Amino acid sequence: MSMDSLITVENLYRYYGELCAVHDLCFEVRRGEVLGFLGPNGAGKSTTMRMIGGNLAPSAGRVLINGIDILDQPMLAKAELGYLPETPPLYRDLTVDEYLVYCARINRIPRAQQRAAIDSAKERCGLTEVGRRLIANLSKGYQQRVGIAQAIIHSPLVVLLDEPTVGLDPIQIREIRSLIRDVANEHSVVLSTHILPEVQSVCDRVQIINRGRLVLNESIEQMREKLQATTLLVALRVMPSMGELESIEGVQHAEVTEDGRVRIRFDAGDDPSDMIVEQAVANGWGLHELTPERTTLEQVFVDITSSDVHAQGESGNEVGSEGEAA
Amino acid sequence: MIFTIAGRELRGLFLSPLAWSILAVVQLILAYMFLAQVDFFVQLQPRLPTIPGAPGITEIVAVPLLSNAAMILLLVVPLITMRLISDERRNQTLPLLFAAPISMSAIVLGKFVGVMIFLLIMLLMILLMPLALLLGSSLDFGVLAAATLGLFLLLASFAALGLFMSSLTAQPTIAAVSTFGVLLLLWIVDWAGSNADAGQGSNALAYLSILRHYEALLKGVFNSADVIYYLLFITVFLVLSIRRLDAERTQN
What we know:
The complex is a heterodimer. Chain A is built from 12 helices and 14 strands. By secondary structure, chain A is α/β, with parallel strands linked by helices. In chain A, the strands form 3 sheets. In chain A, strands 6-7-8-3-9-10 form a 6-stranded mixed β-sheet, with helices on both faces. Chain A starts with a strand and ends with a helix. In chain B, helix 3 (57-81) packs parallel to helix 7 and helix 7 runs antiparallel to helix 11 (210-218). The longest helix of chain B has 29 residues, at 104-132.
């Protein structure tokens, strides 16, 4: 384990009765990194987050926060942990200020520093205006911000955010995202979500979990390479033969789609758009549309999770026996 | 840390109208009983000097008041303790406490202390009534102190049991009903053997009864066995609550 990994998850398992919610999960989060934890509903995201947050006991395996085992020394480990669960843990009968004072106290911030910690958390989460309002009367977006303020108030090394943008409007989502980026300057953040653009916009690394298993763990740069376009969609008024198109330099394959456009496949890094435009003008094909077809994270996600479903279906018996073994 | 949680609990109680209405209702009913008892004493007073070893005003007014208070608080304490943990579980605020660097014992003790402070306020208000008799009479402070200690220990036992029941469920009403059920059962458990002449079994049942130990203290008899019974009762249910909360997040 390197000194710089703030969260280390080793061979984590969690069974709910026979159901295996998390299966042999291993990963690390380094200092200053934002890890996007992706998965469809019921994949085990929240279960994993709860285990890292010390709210749920793993059936097997270890969780280290800054090198400290959260089961052996919970008090030490939790001092470096901020956790926003799926439902923000808010006392609705308190005002924002009262609530944050309570959070500062239970997180053992020295009395002299409490005022400053609360003010800075409020400022970072944009809560300065609503300090005296009852939490129950705040909008969902503001309640979510109070939840985040609660998680960062004691400047923990690790911040866990479980679906922090669920149920927010687009403007609020944008604000929360910039807040997350801001938090990541000083803390390591684990962000669980099933919203893909969120991962693309704020995360340094992506992990996809499906049926309790880690099926992908890549940095966002590696992801970007994967997501580079390798096809073009072209719409022409005068349809040339496919042979003519394929003879253009760089084009590997051309085919007509159902809606009458042409899909052109090419090698990565060898974009033939310029040549196609030149040819179209020279031959009077009447080019009026040319779009690179990007593989989206969504596609990768769907590919990975659905192919895994097939694999799971075939090895269904095996899963059953594992359940019994536990 | 315990007092931070206790303070939050107490604030929470007083922010809802529940605590205020409970204080008001209990005070009203007990005041009525107190006045009835004083009236009774005034009627009795002329005849008292003729009776050798006659009871004083403490025995006639204060002790029945505290005895009645125990009965009423048996009904009321479950209502105060029901929300302690179940409400946090229902509102999903427990992760806040679980993710903070606090031990389970601190959480449970904090909540217990919070409720106890509330019950102490109630106890003080009840005690003001017999103490008001000092204006025109003198009291047997020995008996009054023993009875007060008894009521305090009794309330603490109610609260410990209520806390445990609250830790078992996410529904405050279920916590209240089951606390009330168990308390009532412990109250009347000695009925079973009381008619049949003192067999071994009935002795054991009588010893279990939460009321028996209180009766001794009400008479002004300070028996350490009674006090230890209550202390054991409180400790057992506090430890069970801690174990219950711990079970949610530790490896088994």
